[in-house]
Design the sequence.
């Protein structure tokens, strides 16, 4: 060992205290919700040093928690040298300002919404993703600006020379105008991107390619499943909100039909409304899908609550009526003795492991079944000069039999309603098996 110890350059995790209130009106218990909050905090690089709870009929208007619990919190912050206090529910701007004053600087007081927004800010990779996160962050910050200039507003109340100009209020109004202007700019840019996405989505619709969207609770394994099904290399890690930006990949089914699969942002209980609003253009990929695969972590004891949270968001974004198939993922992590009970509770679900590939053939067959639902059988003769239509036949239809004859492509296919309408002018009598 040398004379001098090398200094670590690794970032020191912030010490966090979590605070939750048991109101007794939610499906999730306070302990379960705080356990998820702890995972969120760890995802954001914090170390949870204490968890505090209080049972209340309703939040205290001034400080969210009771006076005695605030005093207990202040003592805990000092004794544990905490850097940040994270509340499991959204605080009003005044509650946050009051708590910051009582706890004292430099300790930060934030809530679940601010924590999720911070995680999204780190994980957003695409231009659109960053714009969506920035919009949500500014919408969250705007009503909280007053506390940032409270020391200047205080100077105004003392009177004297210059007090009529309202130095603090002027700065506050300047900041508000800047934030509102930035919000307007972000909305215009996102609307422009949304129009471009709508054009791309319409092109996919016009092409007739069957569209599948992966949805699910965060960390259910959607990205890993997409990689396994399509052989792609989408970023996938065992952490909350590892993927924010939608990714679409093509998949050729065994029957010859081509479909697209889109991985979307993971959901979570108490998902901030500002985030749902900001990510509506991304979630439009779900609304435009022909089939939704609701991916569930079968090994998670809270899977039923998570399914409920996901279905709630699907309803909120107008996607509740789209055909949906539950996919019980991570079956390799489930105790074999418990698996029968889980599958019995979800008899129509596909049981898979995206990690080791088990159950994927059954899932692909189910996708093919859903894609063929409502299809009709027809025999067609497509002329050689209709090259694009020939390509569409192979990509969009299940080709039962085909042969190239002098006039063109002679084939018996199963086609959906849109494709059947397109092929109607080329229908012929049934193609003989030995044609």
Sequence:
């Amino acid at each position: 060992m040398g004379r001098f110890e090398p200094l670590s350059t690794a970032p020191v995790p912030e010490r966090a205290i979590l605070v939750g209130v048991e109101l007794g009106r939610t499906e999730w218990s306070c302990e379960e919700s705080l356990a998820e909050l702890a995972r969120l905090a760890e995802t954001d690089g914090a170390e949870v040093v204490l968890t505090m709870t209080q049972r209340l009929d309703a939040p205290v208007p001034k400080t969210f928690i009771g006076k005695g619990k605030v005093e207990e919190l202040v003592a805990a912050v000092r004794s544990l040298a905490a850097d940040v206090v994270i509340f499991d529910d959204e605080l009003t701007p005044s509650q946050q300002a009051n708590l910051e004053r009582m706890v004292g600087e430099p300790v930060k007081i934030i809530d679940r919404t601010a924590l999720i927004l911070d995680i999204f800010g780190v994980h957003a990779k695409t231009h659109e993703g960053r714009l969506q996160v920035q919009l949500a962050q500014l919408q969250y910050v705007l009503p909280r600006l007053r506390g940032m200039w409270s020391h200047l507003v205080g100077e105004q109340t003392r009177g004297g020379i210059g007090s009529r100009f309202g130095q603090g209020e002027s700065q506050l109004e300047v900041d508000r105008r800047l934030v509102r202007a930035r919000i307007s700019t972000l909305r215009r840019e996102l609307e422009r991107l949304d129009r471009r996405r709508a054009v791309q989505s319409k092109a996919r619709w016009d092409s007739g390619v069957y569209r599948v969207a992966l949805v699910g609770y965060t960390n259910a394994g959607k990205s890993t499943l997409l990689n396994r099904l399509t052989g792609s290399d989408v970023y996938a890690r065992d952490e909350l909100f590892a993927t924010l930006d939608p990714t679409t990949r093509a998949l050729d089914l065994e029957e010859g039909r081509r479909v697209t699969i889109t991985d979307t942002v993971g959901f979570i209980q108490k998902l901030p409304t500002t985030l749902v609003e900001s990510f509506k253009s991304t979630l439009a990929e779900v609304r435009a899908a022909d089939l939704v695969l609701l991916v569930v972590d079968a090994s998670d004891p809270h899977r039923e609550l998570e399914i409920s949270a996901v279905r709630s968001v699907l309803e909120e974004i107008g996607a509740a009526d789209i055909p949906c198939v539950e996919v019980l993922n991570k079956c390799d992590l489930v105790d074999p003795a418990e698996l029968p009970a889980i599958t019995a509770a979800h008899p129509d679900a596909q049981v898979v492991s995206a990690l080791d590939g088990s159950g994927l053939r059954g899932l692909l067959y189910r996708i093919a079944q859903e894609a063929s639902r409502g299809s009709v059988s027809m025999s067609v003769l497509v002329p050689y000069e209709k090259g694009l239509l020939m390509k569409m036949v192979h990509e969009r239809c299940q080709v039962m039999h085909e042969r190239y004859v002098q006039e063109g492509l002679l084939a018996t296919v199963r086609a959906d309603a849109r494709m059947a309408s397109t092929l109607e002018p080329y229908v012929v009598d049934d193609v003989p098996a030995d044609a």
The longest strand covers residues 46-55. The chain has 16 helices and 13 strands.
